[in-house]
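Title: Comparing notes on inverse folding

I've been comparing how different people in this forum approach sequence design from structure. To keep things fair, I'm posting one structure and asking everyone to reply with a full sequence. Here's the target:
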């Protein structure tokens, strides 16, 4: 009976499918990149194709199409909304893998947990680097079309990698709530203690 009284006092402030969160997180930079590319290509061809070395780029770099106005403002806003969920996704992955690692023998678990922490902090560094290249002004235009093509390939591969989050967590939900049932919280803390 006490469990029912606790759950009846629970208030859910926010509930979203993790899959939907990942889709939004993926679509923000992808759609803004496409809009920036099309509008810069149509309205600012000279600015995005020519480098500071006076070399004409066949494919404008991502830096060039997101570095001209007003495209830079759209890109910055979309990246700002993209960063928060990326931090949440990285934290969810870390917790998810810690729970999986709790099932390994102790000898393997300690080293693997350290490696997991390294991966987590590398992911955080990637998010920080994305903030840096987005918000710190870059006055250089890098020559040669190969750089631009590689930049697009790397960005596309990175977005494709993050699509796999939807495959790893197809039915999970992200919840912001108050007064969750203690059974749920105790179950989570038991899993967390096993992995630390």
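Reply #1:
Here's my take.
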């Amino acid at each position: 009976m006490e469990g029912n009284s606790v759950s009846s006092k629970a208030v859910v402030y926010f509930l979203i499918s993790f899959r939907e969160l990942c889709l939004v997180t993926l679509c923000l930079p992808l759609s803004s990149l496409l809009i920036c590319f099309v509008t810069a290509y149509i309205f600012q061809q000279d600015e995005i194709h020519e480098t500071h070395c006076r070399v004409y780029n066949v494919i404008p770099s991502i830096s060039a199409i997101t570095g001209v106005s007003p495209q830079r403002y759209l890109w910055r806003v979309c990246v700002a909304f993209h960063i928060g969920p990326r931090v949440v996704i990285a934290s969810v992955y870390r917790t998810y893998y810690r729970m999986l690692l709790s099932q390994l023998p102790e000898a393997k678990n300690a080293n693997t947990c350290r490696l997991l922490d390294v991966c987590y902090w590398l992911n955080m560094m990637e998010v920080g680097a994305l903030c840096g290249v987005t918000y710190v002004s870059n006055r250089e235009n890098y020559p040669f079309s190969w750089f631009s093509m590689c930049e697009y390939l790397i960005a596309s591969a990175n977005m494709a990698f993050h699509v796999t989050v939807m495959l790893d967590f197809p039915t999970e939900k992200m919840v912001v709530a108050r007064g969750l049932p203690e059974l749920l919280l105790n179950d989570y803390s038991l899993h967390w203690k096993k992995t630390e």
